[in-house]
Each structure stands twice: as C-alpha cells, then as structure tokens.
Write a structure and sequence with these properties.
With about 270 residues, the chain is mostly helical. Helices cover about 60% and strands about 5% of the residues. It contains 14 helices and three strands.
Length: about 270
C-alpha cells in the first residue's frame, strides 16, 4: 500500500516529532501490565488530560489486579466517578476478576487471550501487548488513524480501516513497538490541534460524537451518581432527576441487564 520511500519518510517525520515533542504520562513510566491495562481502559473515548489525575487516584486505591478483583463494584464506580462511560469501570472490574480466576492474577501476554476479557477489543488488546510487553501487534486507535490518513490518504475521502491497517503493519517498528506507538499517537494527537479539518473525518468509519447535554449517557450518569449515595425507589429517581417514567425505566432496565445495578422490593441499588 505504501511505497518503501513513503514509509521511510513517514517514520522519519513521526520519530522526529516524538524526539522533540513527545508527551510524558505516568502510564508511560511503568511496564507494570496491570497499571497499563487500567490506563488503556481509562483512555477509551477520554482525553489524556482527564485521565491523568484519575489514573493516579485509581492505582492508589487499587494497586494490584487482585485488589481490584476483590473490591465491590460500588467501590470501583465511586473511584471512577468523573471519567464517564461507567461501563468501562464495570468491564475493568470484571476483567480483573477473570484475570485472577483464569490467569492466576497475571495479565495475559497473548493477544488472543486479552481480547476474550470483558471490555477489551482489538485496540486495547494491541495497546496492552505493545506497552506492557513490547510485543508488535498491529492495531488502530483514533490518533493512529489520524496520523496515517493525514500522511498517506490526504487526497481521499472514506478511507477504510483496512487500508490504514496495511500501513500500520508496513510501518511497524518490530524491535521497539512500545515507543513507536507512543510516537505515532503523539504525532496524530498534534494533528488534531494543528489541522483546520480533523483528518479523521476522511475515515469511512468516522462518526461525530453526539452532544452530551440531554443525552441518554448524561441521564445514566445522573442515575449512577444518585445510586452511589444509596438505594433509591424508582419514583424517587425519576422525580429527583426530572426524567420521564418511560426513560427512567428504560435506562434502569439497560443498567440491570449490564449488571451495573440491581432492583429489589421496589428499590434500585448497586
């Protein structure tokens, strides 16, 4: 897909940018696979500046995979508050329990085992392999996609991930995938600020994020915050949050199905 000379130039640009402007994060200062797993869950759909403080707080509260597995879901959700997308906290907690139960408390080094864990898709599994174990697994996330579209497909629209994945494979640094992915992500992140049009809009898979205000996601977050304070009757929740009975019932039904909340004797609780 990419010519040898173009790939070579791309790598030179990316490494050059990283050497001058590479970002520093706490999760880049560790090779602890559990700590990296936590950071990858947090970084799903969330900007790094929001993750930084919460990451340190979470690791302090749950320093090992076993301490997380042994915690109650309520404790985990309380510590997670402020990051949003509470399902990630639920899946991280379940993953910790599965790691303890099936893998002796050790994060699997094998990609095919990682993707079987709750809430872990190809991108998170690939990132854990690279950052925790320095294993060169090709994967795509938003900054990687942006960097490759900008450099290789700037004159196209509706660029497929299949094309992007080919470049990821061809440009991979086999000996040092950990740092190569850091560099690639940092280069992609700066393009989001530097370019007038986000290169990711040229992706075939681009979806504009819906507004948070007034969204179901916001309503779910409000329900969660109320339940962290203690069990609530259905009518209490509905009136307190000024939601329609239909929406309240629908959201609670979703959260029950996911295992996020329970309902008994007319009360909803964690």
């Amino acid at each position: 897909m990419g010519s040898f000379s173009k790939i070579k130039k791309f790598k030179k640009v990316v490494w050059g940018y990283y050497k001058k402007e590479g970002r520093v994060f706490q999760w880049r200062k560790t090779k602890n696979s559990y700590e990296i797993l936590v950071s990858e869950f947090m970084l799903q759909q969330t900007q790094t500046n929001r993750v930084e403080k919460k990451y340190e707080e979470f690791i302090k509260k749950f320093p090992t995979v076993r301490s997380l597995a042994d915690a109650s879901l309520k404790e985990v959700l309380e510590t997670w508050q402020g990051l949003g997308y509470n399902r990630r906290a639920l899946y991280l907690w379940r993953s910790a329990q599965e790691i303890v139960k099936k893998h002796g408390g050790k994060i699997p080094i094998v990609y095919n085992k990682l993707v079987t864990l709750p809430g872990i898709g190809p991108s998170t599994a690939g990132a854990v392999c690279a950052f925790a174990f320095n294993v060169p697994i090709p994967f795509i996330e938003t900054n990687i996609r942006r960097a490759i579209i900008y450099f290789f497909f700037s004159d196209l629209r509706s660029v497929s991930d299949k094309k992007i994945f080919t470049i990821v494979v061809e440009s991979m640094d086999i000996k040092n995938p950990r740092e190569w992915y850091w560099a690639l992500m940092d280069y992609g992140a700066t393009l989001a600020k530097r370019e007038k049009e986000n290169p990711n809009k040229k992706s075939k898979h681009y979806v504009k994020q819906s507004k948070f205000e007034g969204s179901r996601r916001q309503a779910r977050g409000k329900i969660m915050r109320e339940l962290l304070l203690g069990p609530k009757k259905f009518l209490q929740l509905q009136k307190k949050l000024n939601l329609s009975p239909e929406l309240t019932r629908e959201l609670i039904g979703e959260m029950k199905k996911e295992g996020m909340v329970k309902e008994k004797n007319g009360k909803v609780f964690l």
